[in-house]
Amino acid sequence: MQKQKADALREQGMQLGEIQKFTDAIVCYNQSLKLDPANEKTLFFHGLALMNLIRYEEAVASLEEVTRIDSRHVLAWLYMGINYLFMGRYSKAIPCFEKVLELEPQNVQALSNKGSCLAEMSRHEEAVSCFDQILHIVPSDINALYNKAISLQHLKRHDEAIRCFNQILKQDRDDPDTWFEFGISLMHEKRYRDAVRCFDQVIRLEPHHHEVWEKKIICLRELGMEEQAADLEEKRKMDEW
To answer: How far is residue 169's CA from residue 32's CA, in Å, rounded to a whole number?
Structure first.
């Protein structure tokens, strides 16, 4: 009877979680765990509810308990890593994602999150390796291409970053962030005219993107187009005023 009641409370908590009533869901999970403390399914969903409430430390504690019960629980390791990532504790997150990859070598979410952690730690060569592994599995993955390009920029490998941005734009020509970063890499390669074309795309898509105007003005000056640069600078001052 006690086990049945615990299961019923967990199911109630899961239903509340589905409609994003996470505080109420946690009450159900806590009651369920009093009756059945080592239930890995209840602990797992308890951890997810806590994560949704930005109670990351508590979420980690629940998910860690799941991995003590079942060391091969892929999702518990994955979400534990994500909680550490959200807390900015990248050196704690990476071993969680590595555990996922030990169990599921082609887990794209773990590779992506591991790559993001490495990039945040300025370990860009390793980050690129993670994104390349994703692209081996899913060659057209836009997020992996973009994140790889950003790490390549940090490594000053702008010619390779440009190739990534070109691949992204074959799939999505309306992403202002891609056009902007594409322009930045072209500037580093001294391809100022091409960079201006990218920045014009950013302006078309996101006219209030302040940084893009500054970069376009720099490119115009590099191209010897001083009058156009000065006119654009004056226009920006008037717009800001």
So the answer is: 50
Q: Give the number of C-alpha atoms closer than 13 A to the C-alpha of residue 192, restricted to the C-beta side.
A: 13
Contact indicator for 22, 55 with CB cutoff of 8 Å: no
151 with 119: CB under 8 angstroms? yes
Pick the CATH number of 1-103 from 3.50.50.60, 1.25.40.10, 3.10.490.10, 3.20.20.70: 1.25.40.10
Using CA atoms, how far apart are residues 210 and 27, in angstroms rounded to an integer? 46
> What single-letter DSSP state applies at residue 65?
H
Alpha-carbon torsion angle 147, 148, 151, 155, nearest 10: -160
Q: How far apart are CA 85 and CA 99, in angstroms?
A: 15
- 89-143 pLDDT, tens digit each: 999 999 999 999 999 999 999 999 999 999 999 999 999 999 999 999 999 999 9
What does pTM read for this prediction? 0.92
